Amino acid sequence: MYKILLFLIFPIMMFAQQYRLEGRVLDIHNEKLGSISIEVYNTEDKLIGSWATTESGDFQIDNISERMVKLSIKARGYEHVEKTLDLENIQGSLNIVLKKDHQDIEEVKLVKKKPVVKRKVDRLEFNVEDSNISSLNAWEILKKTPNVTVVNDLLSVKGSTGIVVTINDKKVMLTGDELKNLLENTQGDDIKSVEVITNPPAKYEASGSSVLNIVMKKNKIEGYRGIISSKYIQTQYAKGNIGISQYYKKNKLSVMASYYKGAGIYFREGTDYVNYQEDQTKCMSTMNRKDKNMNQNTINVYVEYEIDSLTNISFNYSGYYSPNSKGVYNVPTLIFNNENRLESDYTTINDHHSRSINNSLSFQVDKKLNKKSSLSWINYFTGNDSQKYQNVLTYLNFIGQSPTQNNFQTNNKNNIVLYSTQADYQWKNEKIELESGAKYSFVKTNSQLDFSDNENGLLQYREDKSSIFDYKEHNLAFYTSIAYHLNKWNFKAGLRAEMTDLEGIVSMPYEVNKNNYWNVFPTLYVQYSTENKQEFGFSYGKRISRPTYSWLNPAKSYFNLFSYFQGDPKLKATIVHNLNFTYSWKAWNLDFYYRKEMYPSMEISFQEPSKNQLIYYFTNIEKGQAYGLNLYKNFQIKPWWNVIVSENLEHNENYFVGIEDVLYKNSVWNWVSDISTSFTLDKRNDWKMEFGHRYYSPGIQGTFRISSNWSAYFVMNRKFFNKKLEASFIFNDIFRTTEQKVSTKYANQDNYFLDYQDTQGFTLSLKFNFGNQSVKNAKAIKKADEQSRL
Asked: Domain named Outer membrane protein beta-barrel: which ranges (predicted)?
């Protein structure tokens, strides 16, 4: 039977059509690509066969029985190509061109790493994605960035603390603990680089001495991913944080939403000493501040939509809500006579609580006008509402007097509203880049202090010690800059003009302060590169540092009967001049710099002998200046062993007028050293460990002299289950060596305090990634400058 069947089929097989396919695979530069996989499928997506190109990129496929086939070409580093072919209509040889795939591919291993640090004409770029610290969060990465130091959670660049933090050149509208919380919950895996801009170009706000710009990786791959994270921190007392972040991208829509909840007990230890030269007495107060805040909420929502290939719109909401932070301070004060014998004392019990609410909304439109130019328009609104209440009871036991007690209460309410709108235009070609823009902002603040005490035997409201402070500020800015590239030379120059119109009204005693002024802020950059890749640079920039809104409030905020702090509504803005000479070669980075500050504003102390009071207040000193040298070098000892050395030597001078109207000079040579060594403990780059040491020599701030301190730390990070789960352990201030002595001593001023900010402790954190982990963070929206002063 089978012979008959074979006899019937054989003629059909003889006359069935057999096809042949041949061609060549090239890249966009017509380079021939060898060993490229080619698969052929039929119309039902069944595999017919697989082939590979020769070294010359050629392929030839014979005996294809199907007329309609699908050709599939896959090659690492190139976009996937699929073609449906009618073999009967193909004449001659095919040329198939593969394009480079620009998507982020996790498994690509670079044969040669890019430089960790790159010097550009107007900034220093720290490439995080090519370093072994990408597993850390953004806060820890900033602490390891060249030229950046962190002392008591305060960021500084080359000794200057007027820092502006941006994400993808968009201002982050948070400060203090809220900023730290945001950065701690920003993944290092999503960060491409950190840019240190010591002389910011004209497009940046003139306020602030330096800019730290965090550049995020692009979001190119569609999908959904999420992150659940938790953190346990043990210092003197325990703290914790838990949160979820979710990212989604589909077609033209990108969405990011996150929520974090924190709780814990915060501790700070201090001792104050005041020596009164007039009667040779001495006071000593011990204050251990313990505050409980069990409900800290941070929310962030970002939405971006691509209207068309040239137009994007984005919306951002961020909020912080802390309904109740509370504590009770028990502060004993001992008073010694001129023979150093205890003769009097008093005890202060400070019972207090506070709340804080911050809501920010922003809307942005980005429009590409053509291949060379683009336009952006940003609107921003924020509202900040806070309240601080304290009930202070003092037990007095003075020599020669009967024991008495005093009680006062304060209730301080603050409300800040800010609005800004800004437009930016950019045009560029291969050699020239032009930027221009304008911005308007309006700020309104209201601060109300209600003071009550029992001076007359009953707790009563005191109008003479209460105060209402209203403040309004308008700011209008225009800027333009131009950059030019000529062979080995790079040039850039810009000019920004800002008009400030402000009014402050104090109720008690009644006073009105008005001011209206224009400032211009020039910038200039020059960079030259030699044949052997040495880079020489020069830059100059003029900046302004406006006082924080709370510094302008003259109301007295009492710690106890004999100590308070006070703002000044007449504070001047500080003008800063920055000058830099840079040199880079083979990963060596040197920076010679000079900084001059006219009327810098800061907190200083002042003791009043006639009332035995110690007063802290914000004021302008005459001037400050500093010059120094910064060195940064990354040593790659082995592929798995890395050493980083960062050194900064600076001479700093502050000039201030003392209580007797005499000009004083406070100066010091300051050395900051940061040395760390890190190890990669496995081949998959999933297990890392680091040891580090930071040293700060004595420093100054206005009338203050600040003692030296140092700290050692240890970090370990491990990823599990194909990077789905990540665990980290950090041990900070291992030997508890960060306590500082801050002293004032001139004329009849002689006081100091010891301060320890509870830095010794360990952190355990877990992070679980789910969904499509190829999705990257969406960009943060641009923010206004004024929020940094909230």
From this structure: 370-767
What kind and span of H or E run contains 2? helix 2-15
d(CA 699, CA 651): 10
**Across 259-272, average pLDDT:** 93
- 264: β partners: 239, 293
- From the list 501, 419, 422, 406, the residue with the least C-alpha distance to 455 is 406
Determine contact, residues 539/780, Cβ cutoff 8 Å: no
* The residue type at 130: D
Which one-letter DSSP state was computed for residue 89? G
Give the amino acid at 425.
Y
Q: Which pLDDT tens digit goes with each residue over 429-461?
A: 889 999 999 999 999 999 999 999 987 778 899
State the number of CA atoms in the 13 A half-sphere of 636 facing the CB. Answer: 13
Q: What is the largest CA-CA distance in the chain?
A: 133
Of the candidates 647, 645, 630, which has an alpha carbon nearest to the alpha carbon of residue 676? 645
Task: Report whether 547 contacts 502 (CB < 8 A).
Answer: no
Q: What percent of the chain has pLDDT over 90?
A: 39
pLDDT band per the 50, 70, 90 thresholds, residue 621:
confident
In sequence order, the 6+-apart residues with CB closer than 8 A to the CB of 638 are none
Q: DSSP letters of 138-152? A: HHHHHHTSTTEEEET
34: how many CB neighbours lie within 10 A of its CB? 12
SS3 716: strand
pLDDT 10s digits, 17-67? 677 788 888 887 777 787 788 888 887 777 777 778 887 778 888 778 787
- pLDDT for the residue numbered 111: 32
Residue 110: pLDDT band with limits 50, 70, 90: very low
What are the chain's domains? Answer: 19-97 (2.60.40.180), 254-757 (2.40.170)
**What's the distance, CA 223 to chain centroid?**
27
Mean pLDDT of the 325-352 span: 93
pLDDT of residue 17: 65
Q: Does residue 445 sit in helix, strand or coil?
A: strand
> Which of 164, 212, 153 is CA-nearest to residue 786?
164
pLDDT at 304 over 70: yes
- Per-residue model confidence (pLDDT) at position 346: 93
| Structure-token match 């333009």, residue found | 480
In eight-state DSSP terms, residue 87 is G
Quote the pLDDT of residue 152.
61
Euclidean distance between the first and final Cα of the chain, in Å?
Answer: 95
Cβ contacts of residue 515 below 8 Å, gap of 6+? 500, 501, 502
On the question of a cis peptide bond just before residue 200, with omega within 30 degrees of 0, the verdict is no
**Token pair for 744:** 């004032």
| Selection from 386, 399, 395, 387 nearest residue 350 by Cα | 395
Nearest CA to 386 out of 447, 450, 471, 465 is that of: 447
Phi and psi based region of residue 121 (left: phi greater than 0; alpha: psi -120 to 50; beta: remaining): alpha
CA distance 571 to 563: 21
* Beta-bridge partners for 581: 538, 592
Residue indicated by tokens 């029985």: 65
Supply the DSSP string of 502-520, one letter for each residue.
Answer: EEEEEETTEEEEEEEEEEE
pLDDT of residue 440: 95
Contact 287, 327 (CB under 8 A): no
φ/ψ region of 570 (left if φ > 0, alpha if ψ in -120 to 50, else beta) reads alpha
pLDDT at 106 over 70: no
Helix (H) or strand (E) run with residue 11 in it: helix 2-15
Give φ, ψ of 63 to 5 degrees.
60, 45
CA distances from 348 to 159, 703, 753 (A): 36, 27, 17
